[in-house]
Design a protein that fits this description.
Elements (H helix, E strand, L loop, with lengths): L1 H31 L3 H27 L2
Helix pairs in contact: 1-2
């Protein structure tokens, strides 16, 4: 049971870190390579997935 509670406590942090890497670091690499269209898409996907992760995290606790 502790493993599940530990995962629940760090779920939001893991989601945000994961998609910040996608949205910021990968976007910078695409910009350096001159792929500006892909950079915009990576930022958009990263931000949308962070929002979805936060919503799912909040919904998880509101349904308990």
């Amino acid at each position: 049971m502790r493993v599940i509670n530990l995962f629940g406590g760090y779920f939001l942090a893991l989601i945000i870190i994961d998609f910040l890497l996608l949205g910021l670091l990968d976007a910078n690499e695409f910009r350096k390579k001159g792929q500006f269209n892909v950079e915009k898409k990576a930022k958009l996907v990263g931000r949308v997935l962070i929002i979805i992760g936060v919503v799912l995290f909040i919904a998880r606790f509101s349904m308990k």
